[in-house]
Amino acid sequence: MSEHFFEIKNYSCGYASFRLNDISFSLKRGAFAGIIGPNGSGKTTLFRGISGTLPPLAGQLILQGKPLKELPLQKRAQNIAIVTQTVDAGQITVEDYVLMGRIPYHSRFQFFESKRDYELATKYMELTGVLHHKDKLMTELSGGEQQRAAIARALTQEPELLLLDEPTSHLDITHQVRILNLIQRLNAEMGLTVLMVIHDLNLASEYCDQLIMFQKGKIFLQGAPDQVLTFDTIEQVYQTPVITRINPYSNKPVIFLVSEKMLKKH
Ligand code: ADP
Questions:
Q1: 215 occurs within a structural domain
Q2: In this protein, which residues make up the domain named ABC transporter (predicted)?
Q3: Verdict on whether the full-model pTM lies above 0.90
Q4: 57: CA distance to ligand 1 center in Å?
Q5: How far apart, in whole angstroms, are the C-alpha atoms of residue 204 and residue 190?
Q6: 152-168 pLDDT, tens digit each
């Protein structure tokens, strides 16, 4: 069996106007990987491909040595949870929404959730800080609260691979760190493999062991944060000059943005 837990091999997918081209990377079990890159570089398109929303145009997605397309849908849903950028919830309570994470485990004629389903949903609503909203409708939550409920639902699914598309985009700094710490804990303690699209380069640096940098539908560079987050690569890919330093506590790179006025001064 392959030592890689999840592999993307020479993979292409996309739309008439945009194509992801020849994407190859792999994750070991228990990896915490981040996908970074400018707007429109294809990060969400890749997630649509992995979730099966977009058909492949070439290449393969391989989970534990097996092509993903050969896995039965239920097994696929037990193994992989995806938190997308937009929460499409409608008029259901937060608790019912989170409980939907258990559907892949229900047998064909099971119409009611089990005690364990409720225990898991309650646990993850508590850990993501939405338990006190459990009887509210999803539509009554703020964007950040909906995002946390979506993460609670994905964790309730007890996946082995967790895909997160911008999980912190609507969160204040308290909840950004709280959610990423929670995912980091599950990654370390339970071997949850994590692949997340993240815009904030400093959070990407601090939490991820492996970064994959996209540019115009291709991988520009991949490696450890200190290999990827350098002045040169950031300037080349984002066309933005930055200052890079090392965080004295974590020894990971930190990126500072500088205004045009200050740049001109120096
Ligand atoms: P990122 O997540 O890196 O910001 P996306 O993967 O969302 O980028 O988008 C990559 C490109 O694909 C963009 O140029 C975007 O306009 C295009 N695109 C995204 N969604 C669609 C769609 N549904 N139909 C056609 N083109 C799309």
A1: no
A2: 3-241
A3: yes
A4: 16
A5: 21
A6: 999 999 999 999 999 88
